Structure formats: structure tokens, C-alpha cells
From TrEMBL:
InterPro entries, per database record: DUF1835 (IPR014973), DUF3658 (IPR022123)
The DUF1835 domain, residue ranges: 68-186
Record's protein name: DUF1835 domain-containing protein
Positions of the DUF3658 domain: 223-331
Amino acid sequence: MNENLRNSINQLSESEAKSILLQTMLRLKKIPESNESQRQMIKDLHVWWNLKFAQSSKKCTEMEYKTVHIVCGESTTGSLKFGLEHGNKVIGFPDFFAAGPIWKLHEEEGRTHRYEWLRDHLNIEDDFIEKEYQKRFSKTLAELEAIPDHVPIVLWTGENAGEQTGIRYLLYMLKEKPNDAFLINTTLAYQELYNTNEIQYFCFHTGEVHPEKLNDIYQKNLPEALTLEERSRFEKEWITLSNTKGVVRILEDHIIKEVGEDYFDELLITAAQNLHKQKGKDFIRTGRLIGEVLGQIDGMVGDSFLEYRVRCLINQGVFEIKGILKAMRYYRVKLRE
């Protein structure tokens, strides 16, 4: 057992290891804070450990899972793995498609183009782009190809441009697969199952939903399999998207729209103006500024893209800087007078 566990840990990438450590510490931190019994919390930790390591310590055969779930984003992948019951395999796509080029992403040329843009423009912790992005992307594509033809596939999405773009890309990459494919829109399913006249909650992203509720949604709100016509429509929509050259997408009236990469600049400037009114004309922590904007846009893009736009505004002379542009925690900004 110890040897198998050691081998499983050695096979983890750096980002996977840090993600597991973070999730473990968060669950341990909740034990004294939660109303649940410590016994139940420890039991939940053991279940999570079993999902992470006990199953990964042996080679997964076709008989070990009955359904494959595919989702975009690492944190969402972790939530889904924790929430779903045994017999469900989760494939997490290590990308979020609201920002960055998607031109010809279904071809090697397009994947290289996206990698180079992300590498040259975004500051992501732990050098993820340089060290792991291409490897993880290729590994996930190989996992999709290896799905047995008889296993049903469930794709998860939400009312945001990243996940909506992602499912169109994924369905295109699965176009030769004869498997039944199901599509769960977490935003709509959550509203149907949990919203009441007194309580209304709009979750834009699958990752916002508690793991237990993700399992509940899967058990109670799984739609009919996509028809061939529906799959063909998604595939054609992907081809249209993949011919675009822009780097930012938003979801407007359920339609994916390409916008200029300066789309969020005015929000950054307005947020800085408001913080100056509250705090005076002192330099503002870049993370604080970006956090203010993230709260307004409900995660339409990530913090790394907004940090890139802050750097662009610095280069344009909109912001003054104090510190070094190594990462957002290393510098502060203020509006030029």
C-alpha cells in the first residue's frame, strides 16, 4: 500500500500536488469550524483520499467506471471528483477558454499558437504555462481518445463563455466517438433544483457548486443524450469559433461573442478611481484592484488575464507602478494624475 501510494504521488504534476495539498488543508481547517461531527468530516476526508489515490494506485480498466465526465478547469475537476460516487471517471481539461486565442485549436498549429500566446502574455503561478501546460493538454486529449466506445460521456458547462466554448471544442474533438453524450448546464440545473421564491442564486460556473450538489444534479437532472443533429450543431459552432483571431470571449444572451482584449480596461480604471476615493491617492495593491473587478464580472475571465491588462495600462501610461512586474503580488499601481 505504501509503495503504491508513493508511486501515485511521484506521478503527480507540481500543480496537481499543490491542488491536493490545498484541498486537504481546507478540509482539515473545516473540522473545528463546521457543525458536522468530526467523525463525519474525517469520513469525508477518507472518501476524498480514496478518490484521489486508492483508485489511481492501480491501472484503470474499462470495468472500473461506468460513466466519463468531462469538465473545464482544475478546481471544477476537483469538486466533481469529490462529489460523484464510485464508478464515475472525471477528465478535467486544464484550460479555461474565455481568454487566449482558440484559432485552429483542434489542430497542432492552433494548440502551439495558444500556448505561445499564454506563455508570452500571462503571469501564472509556479510557471504552469512553461512547465506543464502543453504536457497536460496533450495528456487530456489522449484521455479523450482512450474513452471506450460503450461508455456514456457527460459534459458539464455553465452560463459563461469559458465553459460554453470548451464544450464546443470538446464535442468537436469527440466527433468520431459513437458514445452517448449528455450535456449538463449547471447554471440552469441549479436554478431548477434549488432556487425558491425566497432564495435565488445564480451560479455562473460549475466550480461554484458544492460537490454534493453536483452529484445531486447528476442524479436528478441528467437530460436526454444529445442527438446527432445537436452534436453536429455544436461541432459547426466550434469551427466558426476556431476561425476567429481574437483573445477574449463573453457570453451575451446565451451567445458566445468575441470582444476586444481591452474589453475590461474601463472596469479596471473605474475600480482604481473608486479605491482612490476610499483610500486616497496611495498606490493600490494590484491583487486588490483585480479582486474588485473579478467581483463585478463573475469570473468572466481569470485574474491572470486581468493582471495582463493592468500591465498593458501601465505601458499605455494610465497607471504608475511601484515594484516589479514579476507577478501581481510584487507591485502596486495608481492612476496617473
